[in-house]
Amino acid sequence: MSEQTDRLVNLKVMMQKTSLSRSEIARREELGKFPKRVHLSARPCGRKAWVEREVHDWIDRHISARSF
Predict the structure, then answer these.
(1) Distance between CA 10 and CA 37 in Å, rounded?
(2) Are 49 and 12 spatial neighbours (Cβ–Cβ below 8 Å)?
């Protein structure tokens, strides 16, 4: 796995990294089954992003949990 950082990544990057759709990411996030976004603006509909390291951890957990 590549180096994990505290870099913030946007939705487009998240969809590429996880192969999940926008709505599936939102659904899992609301259920607490996906990392929460960081709000970058005081406005409720302002920019949001994910912490790349947290997403890599989520991906690693799913890879480890798979059965062969």
Answers:
(1) 9
(2) no
